[in-house]
């Protein structure tokens, strides 16, 4: 089917994250604010065998808004606080605690008025109600601030403002602002979709946040460690990043450094 413009522009998708998973357990948030878990390890409840494949409610949580998971799990509550459990190997939940796994819900200190969350393998990402983005955790390669040291307090990501939604995977952060403009930052060059800043220090993997070159307003997006995609307001889909297995639906098997439109048509 040939590309056609949509009659009405699509609305930006800022729905909260209601389902999340780590390598060993999953969590879900229902409309009534309850938290449910299933799997192994981080269930926050007693089990007969240490695992449970059936989703069951976690007692004491009735104000949940969103969850996000990777090596650990983040929980956003209605009061704008964020709580975490699971892996703490890089201080992504509580850098003052030397335990590498936190088994109970624990509030993350130093951050409030949060409206969106994203858990990475070694970092926790927070979006506040004033449109700013903060990071706690490994900061591998100095991807946040060009200083390759662990972030022991939530640290603001430069060059991001008026942000309304974030997504993060393995050191790649995408952030959407109020105008529908998409920004990228992180340590993976292939998934950034824009011209790159080159640090003079070889151990630094810092590319400050900058706009992804897309022709129209972004209404939805997704990212992996090596590639990303965006749906624009006209319904077109654009991809960039690693394309070694033609996974970007583009004929060329080489990496796509800048966003390219794929020839499918979505009517939502």
Describe this structure as you would to a colleague:
There is one protein chain. The chain starts with 18 loop residues before the first strand and ends in a 6-residue tail after the last strand. The strands form five sheets. The chain has a four-stranded antiparallel beta sheet, with no helix packed on it. It has a four-stranded antiparallel beta sheet with strand order 5-6-7-8, with no helix packed on it. A four-stranded antiparallel beta sheet has the order 9-10-11-12, with no helix packed on it. The chain has no helices and 20 strands. It has strands spanning 19-21, 25-29, 35-40, 51-57, 64-69, 72-77, 82-87, 101-107, 114-119, 123-128, 133-137, 151-156, 163-169, 172-177, 182-186, 210-211, 218-223, 227-232, 237-241, 256-262. It is globular. Strand 1 and strand 2 form a beta hairpin. The protein is mostly beta strands and 268 residues long. The protein has a single domain (19-262), classed as Regulator of chromosome condensation 1/beta-lactamase-inhibitor protein II (Methylamine Dehydrogenase, Chain H, 7 Propeller). 0% of the residues lie in helices and 42% in strands.
Chart the SSEs and their pairings:
Blueprint: E1 19-21, E2 25-29, E3 35-40, E4 51-57, E5 64-69, E6 72-77, E7 82-87, E8 101-107, E9 114-119, E10 123-128, E11 133-137, E12 151-156, E13 163-169, E14 172-177, E15 182-186, E16 210-211, E17 218-223, E18 227-232, E19 237-241, E20 256-262
Antiparallel strand pairs: 1-2, 2-3, 3-4, 5-6, 6-7, 7-8, 9-10, 10-11, 11-12, 13-14, 14-15, 15-16, 17-18, 18-19, 19-20
């Amino acid at each position: 089917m040939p590309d056609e413009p949509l009659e009405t522009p699509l609305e930006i998708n800022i729905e909260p994250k209601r389902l999340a998973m780590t390598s060993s357990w999953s969590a879900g948030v229902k409309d009534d604010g309850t938290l449910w878990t299933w799997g192994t390890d981080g269930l926050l409840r007693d089990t007969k065998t240490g695992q449970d494949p059936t989703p069951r409610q976690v007692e004491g949580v009735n104000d949940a808004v969103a969850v996000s998971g990777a090596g650990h799990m983040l929980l956003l509550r209605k009061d704008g606080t964020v709580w975490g459990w699971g892996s703490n190997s890089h201080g992504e939940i509580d850098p003052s605690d030397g335990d590498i796994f936190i088994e109970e819900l624990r509030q993350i200190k130093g951050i409030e008025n949060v409206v969106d969350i994203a858990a990475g393998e070694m970092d926790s990402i927070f979006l506040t109600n004033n449109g700013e983005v903060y990071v706690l955790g490994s900061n591998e390669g100095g991807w946040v601030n060009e200083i390759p040291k662990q972030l022991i307090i939530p640290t603001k990501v430069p060059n991001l403002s008026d942000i309304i939604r974030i997504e993060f995977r393995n050191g790649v952060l995408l952030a959407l602002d109020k105008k529908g403009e998409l920004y990228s930052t992180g340590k993976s060059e292939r998934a950034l979709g824009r011209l790159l800043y080159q640090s003079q220090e070889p151990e630094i993997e810092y590319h400050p946040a900058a706009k992804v070159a897309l022709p129209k307003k972004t209404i939805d997006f997704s990212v992996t460690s090596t590639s990303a995609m965006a749906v624009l307001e006209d319904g077109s889909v654009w991809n960039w990043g690693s394309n070694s297995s033609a996974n970007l639906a583009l004929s060329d098997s080489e990496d796509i450094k800048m966003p390219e439109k794929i020839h499918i048509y979505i009517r939502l």
